[in-house]
Amino acid sequence: MPAPRGTALVTGASSGIGEATARLLAAAGTHVLLHGRDRERLAALAAQTGGTALEADLADPEAAGKLAERALAVTGRVDTLVNNAGLGWAGPLTELSPELLARLVAVNLTAPLELTRALLPGMLARGHGRIVFVTSIAGRTGVAGEAVYAATKSGLDAFADSLRFELHGTGVDVGVVVPGVVRTAFFERRGRPYTRTTPRPVSAQRVAAAVVRATHRPGDYYVPRWLRVPVALRGAVPGAYRALAMRFGAES
Ligand SMILES: NC(=O)c1ccc[n+]([C@@H]2O[C@H](COP(=O)([O-])OP(=O)(O)OC[C@H]3O[C@@H](n4cnc5c(N)ncnc54)[C@H](OP(=O)(O)O)[C@@H]3O)[C@@H](O)[C@H]2O)c1
């Protein structure tokens, strides 16, 4: 299946899943607008993909709106928006500082909402657009020690679902990619490395392939696919799910 051509803005393209997604989209002929904070990594990726680097710290409340403006200034349109940038934090809630709590909510939740709001009018006017959200299994099942992170991802999920209904018939489609554990810098950066043996981490490329699929055929994509089983179990028999999760470990 070919990737969409046109222009795609990928947030968090300087690392991990976003970088892999940007490479796949560029390889298929899409002009990629590469967002991140790491100037050197963005410049190197821009040189390799023919894309355009756009630096912005999404923790800044005005950054998402300005990023949308700068993205539109490059080619006049954004056909595909991949809301991927995000950060984690793991530990007891009482040890999370108010500053970091606000940062998690700003980057993981407020920024993608605002970016979507700002880029949607152009998509609606053209009668075509693709918006993909990279959420997390944490947002669908809950994870001990990651309550705020899980809440931001759950919020993103609810936003995506609601938007899907709102945009039905407009030509603008919404996709959601729900990764489990992915081999990226995410865990080191959140301050607690991933040490469990199961579930086994998947590659960023595998998640990126799901993101590209979500741009063609909107829907929910779990990576790996078996993750839909605990989510279904939680929905059908929440008490039994929780008992099992407590027993086998509800941390990552
Ligand atoms: N890795 C996993 O196991 C996993 C599982 C489920 C969901 N996810 C989600 O997947 C997405 C990508 O994560 P990843 O695994 O690829 O991690 P990563 O390698 O750490 O990449 C995170 C990306 O987000 C950007 N970012 C972080 N804070 C930012 C800020 N304040 N302003 C702007 N950009 C910021 C980073 O930019 P800079 O590097 O330039 O700062 C980087 O490009 C995240 O939303 C994460 O929650 C990851």
Automatic annotation (TrEMBL):
Superkingdom is Bacteria
Which SMART domains would you find in this protein's record?
Answer: PKS_KR
Q: Cross-referenced Pfam families, in alphabetical order? A: adh_short (PF00106)
Q: What does UniProt give as the signal peptide span? A: none
Q: Name one GO molecular function term.
A: oxidoreductase activity
Q: Give the UniProt entry's GO cellular component terms.
A: membrane
SUPFAM superfamilies (alphabetical): NAD(P)-binding Rossmann-fold domains
**By its UniProt entry, which PANTHER family does this protein fall under?**
DEHYDROGENASE/REDUCTASE SDR FAMILY MEMBER 7B (PTHR44196), DEHYDROGENASE_REDUCTASE SDR FAMILY MEMBER 7B (PTHR44196:SF1)
Stated family: Belongs to the short-chain dehydrogenases/reductases (SDR) family.
Task: State the protein's name.
Answer: SDR family NAD(P)-dependent oxidoreductase
Top-level taxonomy: Bacteria, Bacillati, Actinomycetota, Actinomycetes, Pseudonocardiales
